[in-house]
Design brief:
With 268 residues, the protein is an alpha/beta fold. The chain has 7 helices and 11 strands. It binds zinc ion (ZN) (2 copies).
Amino acid sequence: MIVDYHLHTSRCGHATGEMAEYLATARKRGVEEVGFADHFPLELLGEARKKGISMAAEELEGYFAEIKELQQTVDIPVKIGAEVDYFPGREETAAQVLAGYDFDYLIGSVHYLDGWDFTHPGRRDLYAGKDIMELYRQYFAAICRLAESGLFDIVGHLDVIKKFGYFPPGDWTEIIDKTCRVLKETGICVEFNTSGWRAPVGEAYPGPAFLQKCRELGVPVTLGSDAHSVRDAGRDLDRAVRILRRLGFREIAVFSGRRRTMCPLPPV
Ligand SMILES: [Zn+2]
Ligand SMILES: [Zn+2]
């Protein structure tokens, strides 16, 4: 089974293309199940509404309706997901609002540290003055809290803090080990997100050391392209599957109605 659980759409304002187009491209690449995971409205999470960053609250109804229509017309399963920003301390707000929707799965992601959108190319200069080890500690502490919140089924692009190629100068195995232990304890699933191969770092999220540790501890994984344009739908998932198999993974997680089942990975 090859799935692509991380597809955006033009609704978020910084992606292009329509759902049917993403789906068609993913199918051509051998994807057998897709899930849309557009950015959940920030204003529903207690943030100011920002244009071009997430869907707007009033777009959610159309988002659900369009996916439900696709489910009737295409021959592969289409799941309803969302990528939800995790804001430490706002768990209550998130829990209340998310309970009002019928998602198949929720991807929890950290895109902000102290209000800094550290994945945004336009904010990249802010890395320069930072203690990168300290930054990694802060980021992965947020990831651990995200997992412990119990709000999400999947942690999105686990080590995206490396996006622009900044790595701690010393050994940071301890951070990797601790994070993976928390992931295991909380039962959350990790996406193997191929968009890192298209980013300046040139390495998928998460990197080999994280994947190895997830494998060792039995943390489940799923797959996502994080496509923001149609041409990236389903991209590099075959390469991801080969890597997972080489590391000893034999199954990936799929979700329906927020329940996880494990499906065999295709042979390579
Ligand atoms: Zn996005
Ligand atoms: Zn993201």
